[in-house]
Automatic annotation (TrEMBL):
Classification via PROSITE patterns: ATP_GRASP
Source species: Pseudomonas mangiferae
Annotated Gene Ontology cellular component terms: cytoplasm
Listed name of the protein: Alpha-L-glutamate ligase-like protein
Keywords: ATP-binding, Ligase, Manganese, Nucleotide-binding
Pfam families: ATPgrasp_ST (PF14397)
Gene Ontology annotations of biological process type: SOS response
Regions crossing the membrane: none
Matching InterPro entries: ATP-grasp (IPR011761), ATP_grasp_subdomain_1 (IPR013815), RimK-rel_E_lig (IPR011758), RimK-rel_E_lig_ATP-grasp (IPR039523)
Length: 328
């Protein structure tokens, strides 16, 4: 028991945030319950983002009832690739990624050949709430399939890598790149076996990674180093993440973004209860950073000042970056 207490005190000294602290001091404190539907429903998130002029993957259509499944061909038209998602899904469950057609059938991103009927069955399962938060009836979203920027080819296995940035009251506090693996079936979800790689907030250069809660330096499938990669348009990602505070009104969120080969940075979804593995990926605790932001907010409140998204990004990069922007 003494050893456990000693270990926990050591973690607290490093600013490691546990799930109880995250829930009590941040999720419950900064996220008003009535705003949750904005981030828990991907369709509402997408509609709000479009209204705000924020780039998201194009929405091809929505299926709400079993009868509307008949509209599938009309929605996808002659497209060879698309993505089907549960509007209220979590953790990547229920997502079907179609990469191509093959002799009257469809080919998933992993190369599996499936029939039209199998896609219809998947949509039906989504509608019943099989993948939704709380098991409630859901809607199926059919949207543009992101084509990852070529920079990820050497450090990712199939699928689409994404970037998560934790944002407190509009201030980015920590970031990581999530890389699909063979074990995660090409999905960028850590609990399914994807890799989390820390990202320097100041520069957008990747740090060391974590895979299955162990620290790593190379991708298990490509064997290429995951650290030292410069992510393109990093300031664009940071400003997008910071601006999501105004978009949804929630004070503590995880902003998930992708880098499309043609369309650039796109918002994928928002999360009101972001996980804590990002701390392992960055070899750094969240608490020291969130306390710094709260101190900043208290100081600005006394002065009667509210910072813009650009100013919030600049503050975060100067305080939390491993390399100061001026040194780049």
């Amino acid at each position: 028991m003494f050893g456990l207490i000693k270990t926990w005190k050591a973690l607290e000294a490093k600013g490691i945030m546990g799930i109880n602290r995250r829930n009590a001091d941040y999720v419950l404190k900064y996220n008003r319950r009535h705003l949750y539907p904005i981030v828990d429903d991907k369709i509402i998130t997408k509609e709000r983002a479009i209204e705000a002029g924020i780039h998201v993957p194009e929405m091809y259509g929505i299926i709400t009832t079993e009868k509307e499944i008949e509209r599938l061909d009309e929605i996808i038209g002659g497209r060879n690739d698309f993505v089907i998602k549960p509007a209220q899904g979590a953790g990547g469950d229920g997502i079907m990624v179609i990469a191509d057609r093959f002799e009257g059938r469809f080919k998933t991103v992993s190369g599996k050949i499936i029939s039209h009927e199998e896609i219809e069955h998947q949509i039906s399962s989504i509608l019943t709430g099989l993948y939704s938060l709380g098991g409630h009836r859901d809607r199926a979203l059919i949207e543009y399939r992101v084509t990852p920027d070529p920079i990820f080819k050497s450090i990712s296995y199939e699928g689409v890598p994404d970037i998560r940035i934790i944002v407190l009251m509009g201030y980015p506090v920590m970031a990581m790149l999530r890389l699909p693996t063979r074990q995660s079936n090409g999905k960028a979800n850590l609990h399914q076996g994807a890799i989390g790689v820390g990202v320097d907030l100041a520069t957008g250069v990747t740090l060391k990674g974590t895979w299955l809660n162990a620290k790593i330096t190379k991708h298990p499938d490509t064997t290429n180093a995951v650290d030292g990669v410069q992510l393109p348009n990093w300031n664009g990602f940071m400003k997008l993440a910071a601006g999501c505070y105004e978009l949804c009104g929630l004070g503590y969120i995880g902003v998930d973004m992708v880098l499309d080969e043609d369309k650039g940075p796109l918002i994928l979804e928002l999360n009101a209860r972001p996980g804590l593995n990002i701390q392992i990926a960055n070899d750094c605790g969240l608490t020291l950073r969130t306390h710094a932001v709260e101190a900043r907010l208290a100081e600005l409140q006394e002065q009667g000042v509210v910072e813009t998204a650009e100013e919030r990004v600049r503050f975060a990069q100067e305080l939390f970056g491993h390399v100061h922007p001026a040194e780049i």
